[in-house]
């Protein structure tokens, strides 16, 4: 009997892996359209994505999958709750139950519409012309509403969409944690502004030749552990990391020859995602046990390497001499301390991905509110620029000069990523919890970083997170590793510890 | 009744288009692995290709396709022999009958094995290490033998494989035409060597900065009509052109900063393929009427723009002043005439893709003979380097220094392209026939080229070839356009007209 269930399970896994391989083909196409696809290719690419999405959907909701699930569930084979088999069966069932509610036509149409919408967004952003993007956004929103209605997890439409990125997370829980976080951030940023201290950020705005930035960024990514034999770095309008399968993880960044931080911290950020992708258990490739658990946990990795590690003093104890060698003209007369202060300069500004650690989450809170209204239908797409600018001024005290620096800055809504933004703040919160725990477990992390040793932290993350796949839901995983549920406290502590000394603020 | 057949035909076309879209996804993956895929991604890429090849096969041999074919064939709807519907139905039937003979497992295995073999070939070529490639070549040959046995078109195994690239062409016919061609070429090359005249090729071996080569090559490709809004140019080990679908045609080249011809004529060559791909009738995308007719005809386009146009005096009447501006250091003191002589220098050499027009086809003849022996099993893979070097010395009077410059120079055998090489010589022969006819139809082509006008020729090719899709078999198409069957005469005439004056040879 056991051997029969074995065989059923193997059949199930084979089918699910095939779906993953097909999904990874769509992944290559997605990477390509962000990096190298000529503009003229967008319409055909939309057809390719629609077809692949349809084939994938057809395979996931294949009645044979359900028949196999029925025969393996509730058997001895999956009795051990967090065994590989039990986790895979549980998550395949979850995905089956979710996808079977979605009509194939909707899945195909979403793939088609979002491919074209991304292309339109790129053009609109380039020309700072929201009207060029508006009809696409309207279509995306309409389809996402249909998706939420079909999937309906029991809460609001937004809850349903959120669950896709962060299993088990709710608008209510996030609103609660984010609201305390906001109060703390507003207070901290206010104190920083009142401190009257200003770092000389012009240090970072000198001439940093792009080729040197690329070489320096790649060397740093390599040293924290990103494997370029199984990955690469390219330039895109919007930086991202794409795990295309075992042995192929690609990150991107964007360069400004007169701004060091944009590309460098972008590379560290995406390399953080890349470490997660490269650290997955390839033995379980294509199954839930070989997949990342959630976007929030994924983002905790990018944030950790970008901010907790990369913007810390110890990191630059090791890298600053190298930076001086790489950029002699820009950094010859600069001290490490001034460089450190410049990169941790806090200032309310327009662009989310360029924001400092203290103000970053305020950008997310704005989007979190707006996209709830967008999906509920309370905010028509046409009003997005006006409401964005108004809300931004209220929160940031700044007048948005144009939509490229306002509501068109991010790619997410164009690919249908409604409910995606809050996972960024979740990532910051989880990163703080994990980093606090890693400090406890691994001894003097700063001394290790100063020696250029990043493998102890990386190995710890690999064991605790990357190799766990989807064994536990993200909230539970974080709680198991850190011993506490989602909390604003470690992040606020981290920010105070970093910015207190820099701006002479005492708790 | 007519409307029923209409609907059946529409259903058939819809299914066939879907297969083409799926094939174009594999096309993107193929382009990616030649350009940007990290080495570590090869194994997973092989799985992706195997899966896509299997899905494509499954769809082509779907019994529903045959049922639809049965209901539309021999009806009034396809009575007009070369109407769009009749051509599509004829070719879909041909493809169905072919593919249904191939087991899906063989198709998948071929996709898997050739993906890995290409990667191994790249590494082997880099290290000039044939042994690294040998086991892959053996596997490829074994699978191609199985493929030929399954498809069996009635002639030899090689005939069967040839038919895949050049419908209706036979080893016998090619052997006959190639053998006369060889005699003529040997005589011409002998006369050139005996002439004692030498061009100063060092002109082309000066410093040509890669970025300037790229800009100059792109400008030239654009001027002959390649649309970069629907295409791009990248760098690869082996140059190629990939039509990924409407609006997306990509060409590649390789650069040597100390050799002008390699990248430039490579770009013209691939842009010639690109014009064909961009000139296809997008209305018929994904069906035989919107597809290129054969590799030989495709190659006639690349050869025409590279050699017949690009290595002619008139082309440089227009482009030489531009070249002098683009490469002032290299070309300031060079006359157009010396530049022209240098680029048309004839010399027996090792690398096929760098060979001049007079010796090029000798490279093909060597491969044509060897691959027949390889597929027949008369030549074991292990003996390839020895036999290659021996034959090469016999034909070229040169000792091959290493396998990278010998049997490892070409990618074709690694992707299973046995029977592919002769289409290159076919392309030269067809190009000569077409060009001769175009001169007759279009008046003074040279005067047009000298003014930088390439659209009359391009429009002529578009109408006569590109928009015809697969309406006629390639041999018939060429005969209809030029009024004569495949012949060595126009090519030999062209070569004599070009090299006679340059080397003071009189017929």
Summarize the structure.
Two copies of one chain form a homodimer. Chain A folds into two domains: 2-152, no CATH class; 171-503, Neurolysin, domain 3. The first copy, chain A, is 64% helix and 3% strand.
Describe this structure in words.
2 copies of one chain form a homodimer. Chain A has helices at 2-35, 42-60, 63-72, 84-99, 104-127, 130-151, 157-165, 171-194, 210-224, 260-279, 295-309, 313-326, 328-331, 336-343, 360-376, 384-396, 422-442, 445-450, 455-464, 474-482, 489-503; strands at residues 231-235, 241-243, 249-253. Chain A is built from 21 helices and 3 strands. With 507 residues, chain A is mainly α. In chain A, a hairpin with a 5-residue loop joins strand 2 (241-243) and strand 3 (249-253). In chain A, strands 1-3-2 form a 3-stranded mixed sheet, with helices on both faces. The radius of gyration of chain A is 23 Å and the shape is globular. The mean pLDDT of chain A is 96. Chain A has 2 domains: 2-152, no CATH class; 171-503, Neurolysin, domain 3, CATH 1.10.1370.30. Chains A and B meet through helix 1, helix 2 and strand 1 of A and helix 1, helix 2 and strand 1 of B.
